[in-house]
Design a protein that fits this description.
The complex is a heterodimer of chains A (346) and B (284). Chain A has helices at 10-19, 97-100, 102-110, 117-125, 173-180, 205-214, 219-225, 233-237, 282-301, 311-315, 322-330; strands at 2-5, 23-30, 33-38, 64-72, 78-82, 90-95, 126-131, 157-161, 167-171, 187-189, 244-249, 254-261. By secondary structure, chain A is of the alpha+beta class. The chains are: A alpha+beta (346), B alpha/beta (284). The interface between A and B is large, with 54 and 46 residues.
């Protein structure tokens, strides 16, 4: 036996969650884009799409947020004001497993020896009702980085579509059980056939990691990154990319310190005030992104910084596919290149 | 703000007051700060080599090493060179103005564990002398615990040599060997110090490596050519220390920009040994 949510009851779930005080967000269609946004009815949900353009990251790490305020009074005295994030309780309905899995991975860096309150206070306020993927496309590669189209990791409630189009319901942890208790119209039903995508394994992760360890200096990076335009969109759509900038904005008598999304693909990311740049060329910046995700982060914090959602593959304006690059690395294509050629002098 | 600042906002600076300003060169300045909240100031502790994030409200923040060693408490000093937006704003501050400070961050020099009982060789180039000076000031304050102390302070020109008054005092001391050097063409007719680049002068000085520790900091090109000289002089790489810098935002390992390979300058550094440097990829 399993717990079943009839598809027709999704509307009741949205209403129940909203009346319980939650902001409910889910995948919605905005012209040709499908993005996570607030919904008022289950009819707003675009559940037929494989994946949204942007990830759920924005609900936990907003594009911009105030971390401190500075006020200067008439006498010129400054007061430093703590910015208190009061995040709205939010349920993400129709989250994907590759998005849900990103949060526990990023928890590691935001708790690394010191706790980032802004991340964790939003994290506390967000509940994930994930729908397992019934379909995938050629950019999906969750199974290559330890995920699965029906992985419960990071979710509070996991819905898995049945052959009849209803949802088998699984609560995860106390938070999940609490949330599920608010779902109306659940019933017990015999276990039915589940519709779960078969995401092929696209590369051997450990072979890719081994290749990265050996190929910091390799013409592979120049060959690969030559067409990268450094727009950074791969990092912005990524559910695990978390690098940020801290900048002061506003007039000197009433300024804010803001945390904004930043991207390692941009030249200014590492540019020193002296003019020295440790990563002067795009190949260095592209290499940093791949190394950080597949070598540095796992070696420091124990997890690969990628869930295989494939958004960076789909969004790249020059079709520079991370999936292809990591597959090439795993297949040993970087090793085969002569290491003496093509070195860039800083 | 009487209680310690809320530990859970990592990005909230201490409010500081500019207590004194000292020009070291035309573009290098030292600012001394005190905590607005005296209780925080009294309980604040740090070690030589650690850095802080110093900020001007409305302009932004920059990482600099804490320039005064813990043997000279009661204030927070930092020495900086005019380079960009924040350092311009820092130069606009007057005594009595307020600014922000977060820290201390990073790992210090292992003075207690690795420097005691040894001869010490300090090499600084340009503004790179600032973090080196913090260490030698501490060692001079604890003079009896160390062997011979040699300091090489190199700059482009005579006018660019920071800490001139302090250097004059050091030069008069019998228990320190101070060598001042300027690049060829940077000397004046009255110049009595050396003329040449730091690596070449170090080679001439040839300080004995036995039982010695070297601390080097300067522009990347100086470090690049100085490390091989130390190696020729048979300084074991584990006894050679440097302090790296990188563009930084958070200072606590979150913002993801100061890493060199797997190492984060803010958490694993800024102090590294030459052994550790050798293990880093060419990404700094």
């Amino acid at each position: 036996m399993s717990r079943l949510l009839p598809r027709a009851n999704l509307e009741g779930v949205v209403a129940a969650l909203r009346s319980a005080g939650y902001r409910v967000v889910g995948p919605v269609r905005r012209g040709s884009l499908v993005t996570y946004d607030e919904i008022s009815s289950a009819a707003d949900l675009a559940l037929d799409v494989i994946i949204t353009r942007d990830s759920i990251k924005k609900f936990v790490l907003p594009r911009t947020e105030v971390v401190a305020r500075f006020n200067r009074d008439a006498a010129g005295k400054v007061s430093v004001l703590d910015a208190t994030a009061a995040p709205q309780p939010t349920v993400i309905l129709g989250c994907r497993p590759c998005d849900a899995a990103a949060l526990p991975i990023d928890d590691l860096v935001f708790a690394w020896d010191s706790t980032d309150r802004f991340w964790f206070s939003r994290r506390e306020a967000v509940r994930l009702v994930t729908i397992a993927c019934a379909n995938c496309d050629e950019s999906c590669f969750c199974t290559s980085v330890g995920g699965a189209p029906d992985s419960p990791e990071g979710s509070d409630v996991l819905l898995t579509e049945t052959a009849a189009g209803d949802y088998e319901v699984q609560a995860l942890g106390e938070r999940g059980a609490e949330l599920l208790a608010k779902f109306p119209g659940l019933r017990d039903a015999p276990a039915a056939d589940r519709r779960v995508a078969a995401v092929p394994q696209r590369f051997d992760l450990s072979a890719a990691v081994t290749a990265l360890e050996k190929n910091f200096e390799s013409p592979f990076w120049r060959q690969t990154a030559l067409r990268c335009v450094g727009c950074g969109c791969c990092t912005f759509v990524c559910p695990t990319c978390h690098c940020f900038d801290l900048v002061d904005e506003g007039p000197a008598y009433h300024s804010e310190r803001r945390r904004n999304w930043d991207a390692c693909q941009m030249k200014n990311f590492t540019l020193h005030a002296s003019g020295h740049n440790p990563r002067p060329w795009q190949e260095h910046r592209y290499r940093q992104r791949i190394m950080h995700k597949f070598l540095y982060y796992p070696s420091r914090l124990g997890r690969t910084l990628c869930t295989g959602c494939g958004r960076c593959v789909r969004a790249c304006p020059v079709n520079l596919s991370l999936l292809q690059v990591v597959s090439d690395l795993a297949a040993g294509r970087a090793n085969a290149l002569p290491t003496s050629a093509g070195e860039v002098k800083k | 703000m009487t209680a310690p600042r809320p530990a859970d906002n990592l990005y909230l600076p201490h409010l500081m007051i500019v207590d004194a300003i000292r020009d070291e060169t035309p573009d290098i300045r030292t600012i001394r700060l005190r905590f607005c909240d005296e209780a925080v100031g009294k309980s604040f502790s740090w070690q030589s080599g650690q850095f802080g994030i110093f900020g001007v409200f409305g302009e932004g923040e920059c990482p600099f090493c804490i320039a005064n060693p813990p043997t000279r408490p009661g204030a927070i000093e930092f020495t900086f060179k005019l380079a960009g937006r924040v350092t311009r704003a820092l130069r606009d501050l007057d005594v009595g103005d307020q600014m922000g400070f977060r820290g201390p961050y990073g790992r210090p020099f292992p003075i207690q564990e690795k420097f005691r009982g040894r001869h010490l060789v300090f090499i600084g180039g340009g503004i790179g002398i600032a973090p080196v000076r913090t260490v030698y000031l501490e060692c001079l304050d604890r003079r009896a615990e160390f062997g011979e102390i040699t300091i090489l302070n190199a700059a482009r020109t005579v006018a660019d040599l920071p800490f001139a008054a302090e250097s004059a005092e050091l030069a008069a001391r019998k228990d320190v060997r101070l060598i001042l050097a300027v690049d060829p063409g940077g000397q004046t007719p009255e110049w009595s110090g050396r003329v040449g680049l730091a690596p070449a002068i170090l080679k001439e000085l040839a300080p004995p490596a036995a039982g010695a520790v070297a601390v080097v900091c300067g522009p990347p090109v100086m470090i690049k050519f100085t490390l091989p000289v130390l190696s020729e002089l048979e300084f074991p790489a584990e006894n050679v220390y440097t302090t790296l810098e990188n563009r930084m935002k958070c200072g606590v390992g979150k913002c993801g920009r100061c890493n060199v390979g797997r190492e984060y300058v803010c958490k694993d550094g800024p102090v590294f040994t030459a052994v550790q440097l050798r293990g880093l990829p060419n990404d700094f």
